[in-house]
Amino acid sequence: MPTAIVPTKRCLIVICGYYTEYIERQIKSLLPNEIHMLVSHEHDEKEQACAAHVKEFIGGTHTYHEVTIDKWSFEHVFGAVGRIVREKKDEDCDVFVNISNGPREAIIPAVFAASMVGNERTRVIHTAKDKTMKTPDGFFKKIGGDDFGSVPVMPLRRLVKRELEVVNAVYKSGGTVPSIRELVEIVENKHFPPNDNKYKAARTEMQRTLEGLGEWGAITKEKKGKEASVSLTPAGRGVARVYTG
To answer: Residue 97: which domain range?
Structure first.
């Protein structure tokens, strides 16, 4: 008896911009089950028109989600794209992240998030040979070159459970913890008396964790006397947005 072929689920993440024609071609080519349109509270009239156009274009043929972030910052774009990729990856779905359409400041965090959170079924879409001109109404018109392609993401080292716990602890403390001692007590959820051997062991473990997070680019430390404050970088805050509830 022949084995039934299960259709591959596909998700397209679009960073809202001005190039509606590119998005239409990608939808026609990829035939995604779901489209996640990332928009910003800062978006201008052209971006609003782009989102409205795509929603009208797909009609009821695809599941459409509009994801609104506060602004086009590394933290917010990384967090939003990472959350979607994480969710769809767990649903055994092919994920395509469109970086050819949105503002420039959104490209790097989108690729970074897809590379950290995604897997071998996560790809980044780019345009090739695109030549455009700006029309009087502020939109962009294609003049030749209509190719686009997709490339698999290059996996980044994923943070382990302990590292994510520390990142989330700093994030929930406002993005900065004044001292490593305070961070140890937050993560361990207990107060250590002076010269406590258990504290010394926990601090040594924390120092190793912070060293790995610093090499990854999630935190920075600033020396303050015998102590050091710990702060999240934009990448660290983005990670926290992906993995916090």
So the answer is: 10-152
